[in-house]
Amino acid sequence: MQVSELFIWFILYSIMGWVYETLYCSIKGLKWDNRGILLGPYCPIYGVGAVLDVLLCGSLGSGWAVFFACMAGSAVLEYATSYGMERLFHAVWWDYSRLPLNLHGRICLPCSLGFGAAGLLVLYGIHPHMARLTSFLPMNLQELGALLFMAVFAADCTLTADSLMQINVKLEATVRAIDGQISEKYDAWIENSKHSFSEGLATLKGRVSLEEFRERRTKEEVGKTVSTLNWLQSRILKSSISFRLPAHKEIGSRIKKAASFRKKKGGPCP
Fold first, then answer.
1. Helices 127-135/44-57 angle, 10° precision
2. How wide is the angle at C-alpha 116 spanned by C-alphas 4 and 1, nearest 5°?
3. CB 22 within 8 A of CB 35
4. DSSP one-letter code for 102
5. In this predicted model, what pLDDT tens digit does every residue of 20-45 receive, in sequence order?
6. Is the CB of residue 153 less than 8 Å from the CB of residue 12?
7. How far apart are CA 200 and CA 97, in angstroms?
8. Which residues on neighbouring strands pair with residue 92, listed in sequence order?
9. Comparing C-alpha atoms, which of 89, 17, 84, 10 is closest to residue 54?
10. Quick one: 132 exposed, middle or buried, by C-beta within 10 A (0-12, 13-18, 19+)?
11. Whole-angstrom Cα distance, residue 7 to residue 28?
């Protein structure tokens, strides 16, 4: 077993995971849902899980042992991936909070049971055919294929990571712009209220006007931010569920909605 063969397995299982996720979510939502944050048609977490399943569980012998090992291993992998991605990019790509027996919304028992069964399917049903397929390839073709896959995958990961960081920069700039304008407007209203005959009424009117002003400025800043998003940033934003940082959560959700509306309508955002 060569490293090149392992990497080819990783890519092929990642593609199969993307196909499964995309079909499942598209059928469930009754609309096309291109899963995964990367540009290419692959979900790396499935590739990692499948390759670890083949490497670590093939010698267990018992089907039950494989099932529980895959169930526990998938939970660790899924939790670690979710936590790591959220720490790096402050975004959420899956949330099991509404499912029973979940842990921080990152993993849940029903999904872990499903991945345990998937581990059996991969090890005993799919991988024998996968191994025969790659074994037919001469070593030089395996190495060439692995290098090509690696180059494309590395470029994809680099572009995606850069886009995610740019999205966070744009979110932070949008939040600062809105908060700065609100602060200036609030200070002006406070100063004006000091000279008002009915201070309490003026404050109440100012509060209502401040909310209206915030909503108007938020729409304007969201529209400006959406106009600066490129195609890859819009696609990544669409694939995420929400943002963990409280300051980014509301604005990120509105930008995501506005970006989807622009793409759907082919015109300016509301």
1. 90
2. 20
3. yes
4. E
5. 989 988 898 888 888 888 888 999 99
6. no
7. 43
8. 242
9. 10
10. exposed
11. 31
Of all residues in the chain, the percent with pLDDT exceeding 90 is 41
What number is the average pLDDT over the span 166-191? 73
More confident residue, 48 or 204: 48
Distance CA 59, CA 65 (A): 10
Average pLDDT, the chain: 82
Q: Is residue 1 scored above 70 in pLDDT?
A: no
Amino acid symbol at 81:
T
Distance from the first to the final alpha carbon of the chain: 55
| Average pLDDT value for residue range 208-213 | 64
pTM, two decimals, is 0.81
The closest of 253, 223, 218, 232 to 91, measured between CA atoms, is 253
pLDDT at 88: 86
The residue assigned the tokens 């929400």 is 242
Q: Which of 109, 98, 100, 86 is nearest to 168 (CA)?
A: 86
pLDDT value for 197: 45
Cα Rg of the chain (Å, integer): 24
Fill in the amino acid letter for 34: N
In contact, 164 and 89? CB cutoff 8 Å: yes
Strand partners, 102: 108
